[in-house]
Hints:
6-stranded antiparallel beta sheet; two-stranded antiparallel ribbon; alpha+beta; single chain
Amino acid sequence: MRSRVTLVLAVVAVLLGGALLVPAAYARLSDGDGGGAGGGAGSVAAPAPTTPPPPTLAAAPVSVAFKGEFFSWALMDRESGTISGARNMTATSSTESMIKAWFAADYLNQLGEKAPSAAMKKNITTAIRDSNDDAANALYAAVGKSATISRMIKTCGLTDTKPGKVPGYVGWWSFTQMSPRDAVRLGDCLGDGKAAGPKWTTYLLDEMSKVRGTTAAKDQKTRSGGGRWGIIDGLPDSITSQGPVSMKNGWTELNYDGNWHVNCLALTDRWSLAVMLRYPRKSGLDYGSQVCATVAAQLVTPQPGAALKVPQQPAGKL
């Protein structure tokens, strides 16, 4: 009797043990597949979606089929201060009207907290927006004429810039010699507040964002000219929609050397770009504008339509 009871109890114990083992085994299998609460050691979380950085201008190869005497460019990453550009980006050419932005900045800086008179405020607007020579001359006189060039070099840390000397054109500020490397430094100096000072920098950059007029003959006058062209034409909406682009171009068809002298300068919070050219008069102003736009377009990063490469997460060990 005792042996029969013992046998029955043994059978019951085996059955109960099997019933308890099955759910435990199932739970272990579920955890191994990543379905259990809390996740097993071998589970792999899906990578969080990443937002790509907004397009900008960045160092890149530039190829332009340029026909002329001088072609150079430089780009500053204003966040890092790094300057890249053409191999000859330290070579110089005449600034022409590009330097008018400095005259306005220097004048405003010297005002400090005072407001400019109505007449001088108009000179600032027309010198920048319309590249008016008479307005620029008034600003140049107000900041001490040639003394302002020395102050620009010191304030903005320019290393390649020097006063220009052309026979028969003594004292002309437009012949100031500047390199593309110094031009992007000037752009950065205008943008970071060293040029115009803390009170007036936003005002100055706003004026520079409102440059108007085209390369068309109707917009090019004897003492002023339309200057909204060049770099701005090479920027896609994905960049211009981020905020205003401040700019100041310089250009003239000079008789003494038979060339157009064309300079393009533009800046945003992220970059400063300059393109400087000399080429035969017969090519016209549109030619220079197109070269500036071509350089800018090739520096857009990522290029419009380029697929964004998302780094792949390494697979977890199961």
